[in-house]
Amino acid sequence: MNPTSTAPTPMPYTAPVGTSIGHVHLQVTDLPRALAFYRDLLGFEVTLLYGGQAAFLSAGGYHHHIGLNTWHSRGGRPAQREGAAGLYHAAILYKERAELAAIIKRLLQAGYPLRGASDHGVSEAIYLDDPDGNGLELYWDRPRAEWPTDTQGQLTMYTHPLDMQGLLRLAE
């Protein structure tokens, strides 16, 4: 199949139940600055350093959730937000609502700029850019039984303002 074609594949395929997206690997322009953000501010642990060129970070001892490298990007331009194809954002899922509240409080206390905050019905999320302009979503999922559905049982996600003050009360 031509990779630029939009024609459907001849045989339908559904990804197996349990399939998930594993890790994100980002090109960064300054590894120490990226580590200051992902390790020192967001709290990911470094599992492996490749000198001053790359780092792998995780939560909870996994081999890595985030890869950072400067192999082709050291000293380069930040990620482009508009006018170019690329990753819109990577999403970091927190297991509990209170964990999301704690990281938001930490970011706000550090004066780190947020781009947005939304309640999507299925989840609550904040949006920000890392120091290289890579978009990030930090979120938690509501229990599936609480997801909004229509009268036919179809999912009806939405984008409403996030109750930031209510969420932050969990981090007090």
Proportion of residues in β-strands: 25-35%
- The dominant shape is globular
CATH superfamily of the largest domain: 2,3-Dihydroxybiphenyl 1,2-Dioxygenase, domain 1
Mean pLDDT: 93
Radius of gyration: 18 Å
Low-confidence stretches: none
Largest sheet: 5 strands, mixed
* Biggest β-sheet: strands ordered side by side in the sheet: 5-8-7-6-9
As a percent range, the share of helical residues equals 10-25%
Number of strands: 9
What is the CATH topology classification name of the largest domain? 2,3-Dihydroxybiphenyl 1,2-Dioxygenase, domain 1
- Note the total helix count: 3
CATH class of the largest domain: Alpha Beta
Query: How far apart are the termini?
Result: 54 Å
What is the CATH architecture descriptor of the largest domain?
Roll
Elements, N to C (H/E): EHEEEEHEEEEH
Count of spatially separate domains: 2
